[in-house]
């Protein structure tokens, strides 16, 4: 992997997840810096990963060859405005992980035709189990593409989006989806507690079942998901009773609507911000 000097502007949940994955994949901590207006998050990152930190985005800009724009979409405009007013941005590669902000809008915010690659990661990057969608337009050099791909492969799996709009599909399927799984597990934990298990036992059961199921999916790429389900489902048995309830209550429809809502929200943000 090219060891460029990499700055994260915005040291929140997603930056921490990527930084953790990068450090564990061998990225030199001396080549990573994070900036954030409040110090506590920075102190934690320094302690945990030995990276450099600063409360000044301008110092981050001066340090970096590549800059991950990792603030909330709603503050991106103001943050970029200050960045372009105080710094020479020529020669920097920008990597935006923000939902709903197209490359064209990011270039306007940065005030020039700088190279911008979009990455849509997810928080399991923290454990090197991330899933990221990448998008770069034709102006981005092969070297820059490779750098971003290698960086995100260091923290999980990657797919390139052919069209920029496809990034919104990545948000629905992978960026936001860990939250869907957490919600599903939470509902299962709660029901297990209603059945009399204490909180810890309820959590252990649902998390271990999920982990085993996830590993079965990953270890059997040739088996359809429906086949894995069939292997658990005895005719006239308990699984059939549960699964038929989920199907009859419209689970597929609910999931489709939820994913569509994520895409709609990303499209709405693109118009508003
Ligand atoms: N969380 C996720 O699962 C995913 C998030 N994303 C994207 O990642 C980006 C960050 O999200 P996330 O990490 O969840 O959000 P967080 O709120 O956890 O992190 C944002 C960070 O930005 C800091 N910040 C605010 N203003 C500035 C500024 N002017 N300059 C520098 N830093 C600033 C905040 O500091 P403080 O809180 O101290 O004010 C905070 O630490 C978003 O654009 C989101 O769309 C993409 C994929 C997945
Ligand atoms: O909720 C959000 O907008 C961000 C993008 C994907 C996950 N978190």
TrEMBL record:
<feature type="domain" description="Pyrroline-5-carboxylate reductase catalytic N-terminal">
    <location>
        <begin position="5"/>
        <end position="100"/>
    </location>
</feature>
<keyword id="KW-0963">Cytoplasm</keyword>
<comment type="pathway">
    <text>Amino-acid biosynthesis; L-proline biosynthesis; L-proline from L-glutamate 5-semialdehyde: step 1/1.</text>
</comment>
<keyword id="KW-0521">NADP</keyword>
<dbReference type="GO" id="GO:0004735">
    <property type="term" value="F:pyrroline-5-carboxylate reductase activity"/>
</dbReference>
<comment type="similarity">
    <text>Belongs to the pyrroline-5-carboxylate reductase family.</text>
</comment>
<dbReference type="InterPro" id="IPR036291">
    <property type="entry name" value="NAD(P)-bd_dom_sf"/>
</dbReference>
<dbReference type="InterPro" id="IPR029036">
    <property type="entry name" value="P5CR_dimer"/>
</dbReference>
<dbReference type="Pfam" id="PF14748">
    <property type="entry name" value="P5CR_dimer"/>
</dbReference>
<keyword id="KW-0641">Proline biosynthesis</keyword>
<comment type="function">
    <text>Catalyzes the reduction of 1-pyrroline-5-carboxylate (PCA) to L-proline.</text>
</comment>
<protein>
    <recommendedName>
        <fullName>Pyrroline-5-carboxylate reductase</fullName>
        <ecNumber>1.5.1.2</ecNumber>
    </recommendedName>
</protein>
<keyword id="KW-0028">Amino-acid biosynthesis</keyword>
<dbReference type="Pfam" id="PF03807">
    <property type="entry name" value="F420_oxidored"/>
</dbReference>
<keyword id="KW-0560">Oxidoreductase</keyword>
<dbReference type="InterPro" id="IPR000304">
    <property type="entry name" value="Pyrroline-COOH_reductase"/>
</dbReference>
<dbReference type="InterPro" id="IPR028939">
    <property type="entry name" value="P5C_Rdtase_cat_N"/>
</dbReference>
<dbReference type="InterPro" id="IPR008927">
    <property type="entry name" value="6-PGluconate_DH-like_C_sf"/>
</dbReference>
<feature type="domain" description="Pyrroline-5-carboxylate reductase dimerisation">
    <location>
        <begin position="164"/>
        <end position="269"/>
    </location>
</feature>
């Amino acid at each position: 992997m090219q060891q460029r000097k990499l700055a994260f502007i915005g040291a929140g949940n997603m930056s921490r997840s990527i930084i953790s994955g990068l450090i564990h994949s061998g990225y030199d901590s001396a080549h990573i810096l994070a900036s954030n207006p409040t110090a506590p998050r920075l102190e934690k990152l320094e302690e945990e990963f030995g990276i450099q930190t600063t409360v000044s985005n301008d110092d981050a800009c001066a340090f970096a060859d590549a800059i991950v724009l990792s603030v909330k979409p709603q503050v991106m405009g103001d943050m970029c405005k200050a960045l372009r007013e105080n710094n020479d941005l020529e020669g920097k590669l920008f990597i935006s992980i923000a939902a709903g902000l197209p490359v064209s809008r990011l270039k306007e915010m940065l005030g020039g035709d700088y190279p911008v690659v979009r990455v849509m990661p997810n928080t399991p990057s923290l454990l090197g189990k991330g899933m990221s969608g990448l998008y770069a337009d034709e102006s981005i050099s092969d070297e820059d593409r490779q750098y971003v791909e290698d960086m995100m492969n260091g923290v999980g799996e990657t797919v390139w989006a052919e069209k920029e709009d496809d990034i919104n599909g990545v948000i629905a399927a992978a960026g936001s989806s860990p939250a869907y799984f957490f919600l599903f597990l939470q509902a299962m934990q709660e029901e297990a507690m209603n059945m009399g298990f204490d909180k810890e036992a309820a959590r252990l059961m649902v998390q271990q079942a999920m982990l085993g199921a996830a590993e079965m999916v990953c270890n059997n790429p040739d088996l359809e998901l429906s086949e894995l389900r069939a292997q658990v489902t005895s005719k006239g048995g308990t699984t059939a009773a549960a699964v038929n309830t989920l199907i009859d209550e419209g689970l597929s429809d609910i999931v489709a609507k939820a994913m569509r809502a994520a895409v709609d929200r990303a499209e709405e943000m693109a118009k508003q911000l």
